[in-house]
Amino acid sequence: MNEVLLVFFYALLTAVATGLGAIPFAFVRTISERFAAYSAAVAGGLMLGASFGLVAEGTGYGRGETLIGALLGVGFILITQRFLGEQDGHEMVFEAVSGDGARKMLLILIVMTVHSFAEGVAVGVSFGGGVTLGAIITVAIAIHNVPEGVAISAVLRPQGVSVGRCAGWSIFSSLPQPLMAVPAFLFVETFRTALPYGLGFAAGAMVYMVLVELLPEAYEHGDRAQVATLATVSAVAMVLFQQWL
Amino acid sequence: MVLGVSGLTALAAIVGPLPLALGRPPSRSVIGWANALAGGLMIGVAYALLTEGLGGALIAGGLGALLGIFFVRTTHALVGTGELDVDGPDSAGPGGGYKAIVVDSLHAADEGVAIGVAMAVAVPLGVAMAATLAVHNVPEAMLLSTVLTRRGLSVPRAAGVAVAVNLNQVLLAVATFAVLGAVPAGLPWVAGFAVGALMYRSLVELLPESYHQAGETSIAMVTLLAMGIVVLLVGVTG
Hints:
Chain A is mostly helical. Helix content of chain A is 80%, strand content 2%. Chain A has one domain. Chain A contains nine helices and two strands, in the order H-H-H-E-E-H-H-H-H-H-H. Chain A is globular. The model of chain A has no long low-confidence stretch (mean pLDDT 82). With 238 residues, chain B is mainly α. The two termini of chain B are 17 Å apart.
């Protein structure tokens, strides 16, 4: 197979794996406010842990560039929040949910989709080292994407979105990976320069989302000690998982 | 060296009560931002130890983190400070000041372990962690001295207490470094312990309290800034 098609196919597989993150939510029957709070804590922890991994990787390419990228990521979310908040008096509706719930779901989908652009570049740049390693890298990234699907589903499912649609949106959020992996593979050197900015951007956007949306929601409806335990365990587990891969 | 560095870190707390000494007690928002700054720095320290301190011993690091969470949860249960807002109405009773001191002493203990273990991993990392926690000690001392002066303590005495609670930091930094020198295999366990304890403590004490004191956007900004400071310090010393 053509090398470019191969990179696209491998990266597409990693995107599909994100949908597996919805599976644990198929076993949850009732969705209470408390369940939503603890889901937000788990999502927040996973995103925090994923950001640690992004920053560690980004600083390997350039520390200042990663931090500048993080600032840009925060700026992007601030602008997005403002845009989502200004709907000229029309209440926002998404997945048959209106108001704050719709805004929160859209925000996490935007954040996770944007962060996939950076991950796609990372995939493409690493493929630049040789396609023979492609299968191993694909498996690692695919497994890495599963908890990201958990994080997305943990926000969507408590709003009443079906498990199938949670899986669909999770996959959607990872589609930029195959799209960005191909140009990054073809123009490795150019993209390598931009990579720390992209990784920092993704990390800044994700941590900001955790701090401004997920943790306050978790604290509002959940027991503080349980929220802190779930978020800490999720974050540490995510970092260890990524290091293991 | 560990004694000197951790001693300086503990002493940095003396800067915290300065606004009170100048007759300008901090507003509620400033206290919230101080909490967020302290919390973000603790999460940053956890990031640095997680990414640089485990040396590939992932299971030991993970189990250590669970032990760290268990330690903080247990001490909270024993002392009765699980849901305490140091600056909130719950701490307004006669035991409130005592509880605030206990909470800060326990903070200092985890932080001392973090400095000791970071020094054992690599001296530059240890210096970065000590510098981070020195910055962290300033808002923490400001918060504690504010709480204590509201209970009638004079500013110099409150400042003295705010510095004294950090003695744990020095003792545990030295003890951790010495123990890990004798038993290097314990390093990922202790690093994991510090990660679990610091991150959990930040998420159970500092951040929830900060959200009550200032808006979510500003708290998120200050916390992110604090985490960025740690990333910079690790780079400068490394």
